[in-house]
Here is the input.
Amino acid sequence: MNAPFSRRRLLAGMSVAGAALACPGWLLAASQVNPTSPEDIQAITRDAWIYAYPMLMHYQTLEKQVLDPGAAEYVGGFNRFRHYSNLYTPKNREIVTPNNDTPYSWAWLDLRSEPQVLSVPAVAEDRYYVHQLVDQYTHNFAYVGVLSTGREAGDYLIAGPGWTGATPAGIKAVLRSETEIVMVLGRTALKNAEDMPAVRALQQQYRLRSLHEYAGTPAPAAAPAIAWQPWDSKTGLGPGFINQLNQILTLCPVQPSEQALRERFARIGIVPGQAFDLAAMSAEQRQALIAGIQEAQAQMQAAGAKVRTTLGLFGTREVLQGNYLNRALGAAMGIYGNSVEEAFYTGARQDSQGQPLLGGRGYRLRFAPGQLPPASEFWSLTLYDLPDRQLVDNPIDRYCLSSRDQLQADADGGLTLLVQSSAPTDGSSNWLPAPQYGAFTLILRLYGPERQVIEQRWQMPPVEAV
Here is the structure.
């Protein structure tokens, strides 16, 4: 049987009948000594697939941005920035739920031979920027930005798990990754269209240098080339996920908290660097592996339907506390979401009566007086289609409303935002265009959320049909 699986299918409603399967030959040989029952295969596969999902989605992004020079998303290779000097539009589709508030600066670091140094400039009090550092597990292991390191200029050393060198003078902090490959996702707030030149000028001051270049020392020996496996979206989330994961794990030294987990995964062939041979498998083993993947997908679908905010979905290893389901949900619903101290995300897929938000209908979102989203930097409301979670074309090229816009307050001091496909008759400053048809979702982002948000003492009001 062959049923390709993709992130789109996960978000739309998953149904996987199976895929071309086989069990690694070395596992079959090992099973003669230490048999693994079908029940164990199913349970281990379920847990391993959930564990692997965000790492596989991360690898999918890496392949487009670093390994494929022909891809529109290509950033130019490792250890360099690509700055997006325009806001995202519906044409940008490399990630789900892209924000339309902060032009991105992307970089991928290969830390195997030596660390990299990230340098940032001083910024004014009214300027927000952040660099989010993400490891191959998709943990947000460190931040450089106004909320985390301040508004002053600084040099920050980003080191891999095996680096033991001396920290040179001038480094403000050493930010250590658990994995050899690190993604840096920079965001620089855009106040309005006239602000774009200032944003571009600031982006050009974000700088990456190798440690030897920064310190003026001889270059170390280059790390060996990696024979990266191609990503196939049709099979990469089926049984082929094991081969993909085995390569990724070669760059992810075992953490003490995962020692027992890795040993358990090894029982179905998940071993760093180990070839997973899909050549032969008994019918019973095949069905167990398929069932494990199906069970994992069903578990994610059920849990995802209950998610209303991003609390607990993004952060460090310590914050996530081994909750691999939450980590996977974060990747499925909006990979590379910020940790809650940096930004808070909430939203709605249904109106106040429990009906799905649909194109062609009219809605309003009203914040009562004194109940605007409490954020130290700014907030924004963005619309995405479903199930793809991408921006939607509209006649005025408006994809979000923000506290930085010239919004019209209500007579009582509150604020009403209108979400509909046609322009309102009484002015468009508070209008967020919706599609003509199809389901959509609204995402509210708070940059620099206040304590009442983190402690869940403030909630987004319901979306009302009008």
Notes: Residues 38-67 form the longest helix (30 residues). The longest strand covers residues 375-385. The chain has a mean pLDDT of 90. The radius of gyration is 23 Å.
